[in-house]
Amino acid sequence: MATIRDVAKMAGVSISTVSLAFSAKGRVSPDTHQRIWAAAQTVGYVPNPLAQGLKSGRSRLIGMVVGDISNPFFGRLLKGVERTALAHNHMVIVSDSDADAKQELAIIDQLTEQRVAGIILSPHGNAPDYVERIKGLKMPLVMVDHRVPSVEADFVGSDNVLASAMLTEHMIRYGHRRIAHIAGRAGLYTTSQRLKGFLETMQGAGIEVDQSLVADGDYRGERAYAEAMRLMTRADRPTAILAANNVMALGALQAINDLGFICPTDISLTSIDDVPWGNVIQPRITMVVQQVDELARIASEWLLERIRARGGDAIPPREHILMPQLVVGQSCAAPSTQ
Amino acid sequence: MATIRDVAKMAGVSISTVSLAFSAKGRVSPDTHQRIWAAAQTVGYVPNPLAQGLKSGRSRLIGMVVGDISNPFFGRLLKGVERTALAHNHMVIVSDSDADAKQELAIIDQLTEQRVAGIILSPHGNAPDYVERIKGLKMPLVMVDHRVPSVEADFVGSDNVLASAMLTEHMIRYGHRRIAHIAGRAGLYTTSQRLKGFLETMQGAGIEVDQSLVADGDYRGERAYAEAMRLMTRADRPTAILAANNVMALGALQAINDLGFICPTDISLTSIDDVPWGNVIQPRITMVVQQVDELARIASEWLLERIRARGGDAIPPREHILMPQLVVGQSCAAPSTQ
DNA sequence: GGCGCTGATCGAACCGGTTCGACGCGCAAT
DNA sequence: ATTGCGCGTCGAACCGGTTCGATCAGCGCC
């Protein structure tokens, strides 16, 4: 591979001049600039990012840490981020924390070692020492989906309170009063927000919430299947279920089917988050969807801004809360008057 | 961040000795080794990968290039690769080629610039100059899913001929003779292999294939929807459809539903590749599934082997063809005798 | 004619590692 | 006592860039 010295030799200048010519802000004469560019062209010179990174202390890579890459929500998010990054001459190191705070921190350490220019993080911790570690990060940071309060960094997410409020309201209007909620993993931001939206809406409608109908989930299908089984086999079973995410809604739906119940005749079901190819799942589940592409675009652009502005005028922490959208399917009906 | 010089100073040795102590194969006395390690511990020294990379000419990153990260098949693949890489102290740069050969080459160039240690590639080209470019790669390379023949590199994939043969045979046994095939994107390895399995099995059963029932797809849902629409609105419509991948099967299923047909009563449908949460899609689609985790494990381990053996005894190109597995659902029935 | 100034270019140090040849030392062989 | 050898350690060069201070040519001006 051609180095800066090859270019210098061919153009008949010193290597510092070549470097200057490439750094744009350099004050090289138009003539020299021209000669250097031509030389670089013919030898096929491309700056070595490792050398640049060694000197500058940071690479042209950005890290993305999510809880589960195989979840299509994050897949789409990653795709959007990667596209933006590439357009700005950056590449993306992606890593899967398995939704575990400890692994997440280990990954962040690795990324720091690699001198990534910044990190897009879907945080999964809340313990005090975890928060301290995140706070202590010296590099550009944007949090997506989940958030760690007290950390002064950009945040891009959806209005999760509103999301579950919309669905809860929807079900209440159908006449449901015994509505169950399969919540997300305890301790996560989205979990508490979605629970909050559910509880507040119920209260606002003057419906007392049966606490035993609020099941702890973990954003995974298996657990939701089990919880739905438990809910549906009770004598005083709910007439509607709000699942805190897509995967859990599908788990619940499977439990419903396996027990021989019919959705929505026997039970209504709603979900937060899109279900991939939800339109071929019978019944189409009524859900609120997040604007994933927009999420990805804002998160990556903000990160790149911070990377560019590094050292310069500090950008104050920003947040962008996207409005979720209700997509009505056929999974809701009035409660059966048995 | 602590550097090797800090450690050297604290341990009272030269930096070369510290380097030697860390490279394992170094011949340092146990006593010195001990002192250096202790010093590294207290100052929190971690080698700078950029400096190491600059000197050695390659980083501890591996590139992964796929056609569509948001497709759960690749999401799972990525997850497996990332896990293995992390266990071997490597990180993964992932990039999405949008199933386009040109973009793929551009990404490979970027990865080469970054001095990645190796690449896991799902190739999407077949033109001669494309093949030359891939052949010319000097770094460890493992191809997954798709393959470019004539390129001497490891390949890990599934037996695609067998995959479609299994499904075709399955449908023939139900009594189907007018079986349609929605093929993958023209020019791709898996596309031709899957088509081959279909045609051979039909021939083997003595059934003449109506060429107009072989539709060109592109592994995307929209196109498959359109093709299924076209197929199903013909007077002499097929009684069964074999879709070349999961996304297309769902597209086809949607077309079937939208037209008011019932699967499997009116039309049987089978698919290659897993459908995420396929068990809540009605009907459960009969499909062959690939062993994605195994695919990921072998691909990443082979790549890491090559990275480790770099310069050493050259490993001859290997290939591993995984056996797909038939998962019977409820999407097939005997053709209606109208 | 000597002065300072400006703009273009250059040399050298530096980033943080790896690696090769050299060196000093103790010990066995001659 | 001298030589040869192996082991542990070290100094210095090098990877390929960036950047700062120095240099130099050309210029207008007193």
Report on this model:
The structure is a homodimer of 338-residue chains. In chain A, 43% of the residues lie in helices and 15% in strands. Chain A is an alpha/beta fold and 338 residues long. In chain A, the strands form 2 sheets. Chain A has a 6-stranded parallel beta sheet with strand order 2-1-3-4-5-11, with helices on both faces. In chain A, strands 7-6-8-9-10-12 form a 6-stranded mixed beta sheet, sandwiched between helices. In chain A, strand 8 (240-243), helix 11 (246-258) and strand 9 form a beta-alpha-beta unit. In chain A, helix 8 (160-173) runs parallel beside helix 9 (189-204) and helix 10 (221-232) packs across helix 11 (246-258). The longest helix of chain A has 17 residues, at 292-308. Strand 2 (91-96) of chain A pairs antiparallel with strand 2 of chain B. Chain A binds a DNA duplex (30 and 30 nucleotides) through residues 3-5, 13-17, 19-20, 23, 27-29, 32, 47-57.
What is shown here, in short?
With 338 residues, the first copy, chain A, is α/β, with parallel strands linked by helices. Chain A is 43% helix and 15% strand.
Jot down its keywords.
homodimer, about 350 residues, six-stranded parallel β-sheet, six-stranded mixed β-sheet, 12 helices, 12 strands, about 15% strand, DNA-binding
User: Can you count the helices of chain A?
Assistant: 12
Which of globular, elongated, flat, extended, rod-shaped describes the shape of chain A? elongated
Unreliable stretches covering 5 or more consecutive residues of chain A: none
Sheet having the most strands of chain A: 6 strands, parallel
